[in-house]
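Quick one, tokens below. Sequence please?
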């Protein structure tokens, strides 16, 4: 039972970290993110590109206690007439 609790705590802390990251991206005006899968088992039919307003907690890493997947914001270049 103790080891299961440790895995659960690790899973929840990773999920909370990435959820906070997504919320900060949203606050900063980023409109989309890419999930970077480090394990093909974790991709397993999941989308990799998300509109930040439509992402759910299930879409955010971690997908397991050992998950090392991450999130990368998609930055759109704003051209203000500069070269």
């Amino acid at each position: 039972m103790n080891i299961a609790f440790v895995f659960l705590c690790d899973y929840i802390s990773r999920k909370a970290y990435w959820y906070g990251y997504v919320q900060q991206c949203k606050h900063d005006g980023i409109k989309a993110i890419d999930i970077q899968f480090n394990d093909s088992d974790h991709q397993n039919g999941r989308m990799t590109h998300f509109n930040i307003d439509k992402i759910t907690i299930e879409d955010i890493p971690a997908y397991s206690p050992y998950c090392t997947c991450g999130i990368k914001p998609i930055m759109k270049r704003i051209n203000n007439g500069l070269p």
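The radius of gyration is 15 Å. The CA atoms of residues 57 and 64 lie 13 Å apart.
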